[in-house]
Every structure is written in structure tokens, then in C-alpha cells.
Design a protein that fits this description.
Layout: H1 2-12, H2 14-54, E1 57-61, H3 78-86, E2 90-104, E3 109-117, H4 119-125, E4 132-135, E5 144-148, H5 149-155, E6 162-168, E7 174-185, H6 190-193, E8 196-200, H7 201-208, E9 216-221, H8 227-239, E10 248-252, H9 253-256, H10 258-296, H11 298-306, H12 311-347, E11 349-350, H13 355-361, E12 366-367, H14 373-399, H15 403-408
Parallel strand pairs: 3-8, 5-7
Antiparallel strand pairs: 1-9, 1-10, 2-3, 2-6, 2-9, 4-7, 6-7, 11-12
Helix pairs in contact: 1-12, 2-10, 2-12, 2-14, 10-14, 12-14
Length: 410
């Protein structure tokens, strides 16, 4: 009976009910879309970093992750290569010879990470080949180099121009190589662009007199959900190699990108703060609207008390009204959020005007929202709770009315 009366009260003043429902819908839209865009941005930051350089799994000689020098490169990569070739759960793998050095032109010199790659294998692992804006990707011929747009501008070179790369060899002497710019790339991350150049691994081997050294193997599993299992199998297989106990380290992208992972955790915590701010704003809006409703119905409450309706029933009736409105508003807001997110997940939100700032974060200029159940479900549950909390004070105000004074109110 109380529920039926509460529903009639909602329908009796459609304008007031519509105001409260609208405020709830706006709150749900703000929460879900904010979470969707923030989660989408975090996913893009992580996936961009994985696809451009890190991969899902990397294999190094023990100690290379903490001290990535040529001295800590793998001297006998053949057995590891054989294991990766036989592992059926691995989609692709590539090997690199990486060293910090200088890239120079007649105009400038800059310190960079010089990455020697197997072009055909690297193309299947990372997306650098997809970011070529001028020229072409490495063909594997000696003496080629890929530079970023920002690095080419700093060095004042273009396609076909020569640059000199230099780095310390394992014996401490300086190796150098003249390379011709075959391609220029531009990725999602300005910091990455300014610190990486790519050359064929044979060129790196020759420059460093490395004699077949490999700094790292980068591995992508066939199914990313099986990453942990693949990582564990590869680690066990490598540990079973003769004399390999404690010789190698097999790392996941979380271990390779600890700062980025920590940043993602921090951003996720910030989402809860944003949700709390929106919830507090919503509570005050609900209190205001419900209090207006109670004050407008003072005479009605007085008559109800006079004919025997208890304070408990009046309190319950106001709370049920708020619950009905919360459920309706949440349902409409959730449907609108999913509709908007579904549309934007295809087209994205173009933030080209902020592209420079987004590139510094490692995000593209178009953000695609991602709705995760772990965030949407709490929103669906929290909004009705917040609405009920906002209705408590108006409901208490209603039960504290004096029947005689309330009946006289107009």
C-alpha cells in the first residue's frame, strides 16, 4: 500500500519528479562516461606501450632489466631461440640488440637508445612499421636507420641523408657506423620518439663487434589471456636448459613497465575520487529537490498524520518515492551511457587540439571509451544508495511536522 501511494505521489507532480530523475540521469551519465573515457585512455596508454616496444613478455640475461648494458646481453641466445620457436602458444617473437649511444649529423648530436632489430620479425611484434610517415620500413639491408620526426628535425636531416651512430663496444672502445635514413616515423608518444632509433640487427652487431649478442627476446602469446601460463612455461623450459639455472629472467609487461602500471593504478584511484565528488554533488541536488517536495506537501502530510498514518509509514513513503526515482533515473542514465559509449567506441572522441599533451602521456589524439563491468556495476548500485541518503533529511523533516500546524499550512 505504501509503495502504491508513493508511486501515485511521483505521478501526481510530474515536473518535480522529472527534475529529480533528470539530476540522477545526469549523475549516472557523468559517472559512467567519465569512467569509460578514463579507462579507455588508460587502456590506450598501456596497449600503445606494449605494441610499440615492450611486447607482453621479454626474456633477458639475469640482471639486464636493472642494468641494460651490453655486458649483460645474452652470449648464447640459440637455445632460447629454439625454445621460443617450438612453443605453440607463442604467436610471434623477435630478438633485439639494444644499446645506448649517440646519433649525429653535421648539425647536432643526441643520446638515444639504438635498437638493432630483425625487421621482418619486429614487424609482427610491434607497430613501428605502421607509424612510418615518410620513406619506408627497414628492409634488412645494412646501413639503414629509422628516425622519428622529432629526431629528424633536431638533426636537420631527411630521407636519404646520412647520420652517424656511435656506442661503446663490450671492450670499452667506441664503435661507429654511418647509416642512411630510410624512413621517418611518428608514434603516439613524444618521449618515445625522441629516445629511440632503429637499425638492422646485423648493423648493430657490426658496429658493436657483438659477435651474435642478443639483449632481449620480445614475445607475444597467441592469446593474451594466457600470458601468465605462457610466461610460466617459457620460464620453466629455459630453467631446464643445461647450465641455465638463474641465468635468464622472463618478465611480463607489468614488470617491464612498473612506472606505467603504477600510473594506471593512480589514475584508477583518481576515478574513485571523481565518482565521490559527483556523488556528493548529486546528494545535495536530491536533498534540495526532495525537501522542496516535502515542503509543498506539508498540508498533505498533516492530514495523513491526523487520520492515523504513523511517522514510520510517512518516512518509508518518502524513502520509497526516492528509491523509485533513483531506479528510473539510473536505468535511463545507464541506457544513455551505453548508447553514447557504443557510438563513441567506433568513432572515438577527437581531442586533436590537445594532441601535444596527450602525446606526452603516450596516448593518441582520439580516445575510445571502454566500459568495464567492475566500474559500471558499482555505479548502478551506488546511485540508488546516494539517492536514498539524500532523501533521509527530507523524510525526517516530514515526520517532524506537527499535524495541526501542517494542516493549517497552505
Amino acid at each position: 500500500m505504501i509503495g502504491r501511494i508513493a508511486w501515485r505521489n511521483i505521478l501526481r507532480n510530474k515536473r518535480r519528479s522529472l527534475i529529480l530523475i533528470t539530476s540522477i540521469v545526469v549523475g549516472v551519465l557523468a559517472l559512467v562516461l567519465t569512467e569509460g573515457f578514463a579507462t579507455g585512455m588508460l587502456h590506450q596508454m598501456l596497449s600503445n606501450q606494449i605494441s610499440a616496444d615492450a611486447g607482453y613478455i621479454q626474456i633477458h640475461k639475469k640482471g639486464y632489466q636493472s642494468d641494460p648494458t651490453l655486458e649483460n646481453a645474452m652470449t648464447n641466445p640459440g637455445p632460447v631461440r629454439e625454445i621460443l620457436t617450438k612453443e605453440r602458444a607463442i604467436l610471434n617473437y623477435s630478438e633485439r640488440l639494444r644499446v645506448f649511444g649517440l646519433v649525429s649529423s653535421p648539425y647536432n648530436s643526441y643520446g638515444v637508445s639504438i635498437v638493432g632489430i630483425v625487421p621482418s620479425a619486429e614487424k609482427k611484434i610491434t607497430t613501428i612499421s605502421q607509424y612510418i610517415t615518410k620513406g619506408s620500413y627497414l628492409s634488412g639491408e645494412p646501413g639503414q636507420i629509422l628516425l622519428s620526426t622529432s629526431m629528424a628535425d633536431k638533426l636537420k636531416v631527411g630521407l636519404g641523408d646520412k647520420v652517424v651512430i656511435m656506442a661503446s663496444q663490450i671492450d670499452g672502445s667506441v664503435g661507429s657506423e654511418a647509416c642512411r635514413v630510410s624512413g621517418i616515423f611518428e608514434t603516439f608518444n613524444s618521449g618515445f620518439d625522441q629516445s629511440h632509433v632503429y637499425i638492422p640487427i646485423q648493423t648493430a652487431d657490426q658496429m658493436l663487434n657483438a659477435d651474435g649478442l642478443v639483449s632481449e627476446f620480445v614475445v607475444n602469446p597467441k592469446n593474451t589471456r594466457d600470458q601468465a601460463a605462457v610466461e610460466s612455461r617459457v620460464r620453466d623450459d629455459i630453467a631446464g636448459l643445461p647450465g641455465a639455472a638463474g641465468e635468464y629472467e622472463v618478465l611480463s609487461y607489468e614488470q617491464m613497465l612498473p612506472l606505467l602500471v603504477a600510473q594506471l593504478v593512480l589514475y584508477r584511484q583518481a576515478l574513485y575520487l571523481i565518482a565521490g565528488i559527483i556523488a556528493v554533488a548529486l546528494i545535495f541536488g536530491i536533498i534540495d529537490t526532495m525537501l522542496m517536495s516535502v515542503m509543498e506537501r506539508t498540508h498533505e502530510f498533516g492530514v495523513s498524520m491526523a487520520i492515523g498514518m504513523s511517522n514510520r509509514k510517512i518516512f518509508t513513503m518518502v524513502m520509497i518515492e526516492a528509491l523509485y526515482l533513483a531506479v528510473i533515473g539510473t536505468a535511463i542514465g545507464l541506457a544513455g551511457s551505453y548508447g553514447a559509449s557504443l557510438s563513441l567506441s567506433r568513432t572515438g572522441w577527437d581531442l586533436s587540439m590537445f594532441s601535444a599533451s596527450l602525446k606526452s602521456l603516450g596516448v593518441g589524439s582520439i580516445i575510445y571509451p571502454v566500459l568495464e563491468t567492475s566500474y559500471v556495476v558499482p555505479t548502478v548500485l551506488v546511485i540508488p544508495v546516494v539517492t536514498l541518503l539524500g532523501a533521509v533529511y527530507p523524510a525526517l523533516k516530514a515526520v517532524r511536522l506537527q499535524p495541526v500546524e501542517a494542516i493549517r499550512a497552505t
